[in-house]
Specification:
Blueprint: H1 6-19, H2 26-32, H3 39-47, H4 55-64, H5 69-88, H6 94-146, E1 148-149, H7 170-188, H8 192-199, H9 204-215, H10 234-242, H11 244-247, H12 256-273, H13 285-339, E2 346-347, H14 353-373, H15 377-382, H16 385-409
Parallel strand pairs: 1-2
Helix pairs in contact: 1-5, 2-3, 6-8, 6-12, 6-13, 6-14, 7-9, 7-14, 7-16, 9-10, 12-13, 13-14, 13-16, 14-16
Amino acid sequence: MSDFSAEAMGLVVREHRLALTPPMTQEDLAARAEYGKGGAVSVSRIERGLISPGEHRLAALALALGLTPEQLKQAAEDRTRSLADERGRRPAKLRDQVADTKRRHAEVTERTAQRAKITQEHVEAFNTVHDIARDGFFMEFVALAQDIGGAPEPERPHESEVDGTGRIPAAIRIEAMSAGVARVIRDARGAAVGGAAGAAVGGAAAYGAFTAAAMFGTASTGAAISTLSGVAATNAALALLGGGTLAAGGAGMAGGILLLTGMVAAPVAALGAAGFYVLRKRRTKAEEERLRAGVEAAETALDTSQQGFDAMIDVLERGTAVMEYLTVHGIHALGRWKAGLPPRPRDWEALGPDEQERYGQFVTVAGCLLAVSSINVGALLSAEPAALRELNRANDDTLRYADRTIRSIV
């Protein structure tokens, strides 16, 4: 994990950007670092210390600034130590202490509000594009697949495929989810539940039923497929996929309230514990100490959760990019496949080799969509450093594999 603060990284990035000849604009830096639409906003937030770039973004920013990633990290670590020294020095006079505490109180309040805003923006962006992928690809494919009698089920992954460390590669997790999707399609084909789900194409309830069943199916050894889903822990995944969010028509990622509760509760509580003293023009020494303690506790809460927050934003940004590609190219590819299918009733043997191959590929894409949408983003906010490192590794593997696989198929 990084040893620098978001504030320090922001200051270093801004200083190096402005030190170039001529000074680089935030728009230019975003373009050179290969940020997508709205990249200047992301750069602005980095420079303001609201978010910190992930590893792949940090490397791109460093290159754009003429630095190596190691040089950028080292500069941010050095600045982190100097900022900590400055923060630890308390003004001698009570009047100056009051002014300093008031400034820091305002900064924490603004940082908390901005963090909530950033989260809401990213959640809404993901949910919007996810719902399009859900309706236009996942449920549309399910409806088509249920009409094809005799379609084979992909081979389910075996526990022996897990490496010696006990870690489950993203390929195996997604293969398990894909097999689960195919199994649910097979079991539902011709049954009442299948007809109901098919009639509810695009419905959140139908999607929740299929994804939950796929994740909680069994592998060839009898183990629950959910145990092969890595960071999508069973209870959390079920809550994200089959709970209130989906029932309300939302996407697989948790809604804003679920995320914001764990993210801002600690600093808000700390500020609240400081009482109303910040509103008073004159404070006693005891009142000042109480407010300063509350502000420091809020600062600590925000700093402690920063890496989890950054990891969450990284997952949401990258997950959104994967879904956006799927909504454009995946839905188009599915439409072409649909146009080439024989008339109903359809049988597997009536499909040509290309249509049969495409069926299997779309099952894999459905597994990729499920894997990305079921990443347990809530766990990132509360994970301890060691657990967060493991979650980040697993999430990165899942996002990279899903993106690469979807692009290779559609």
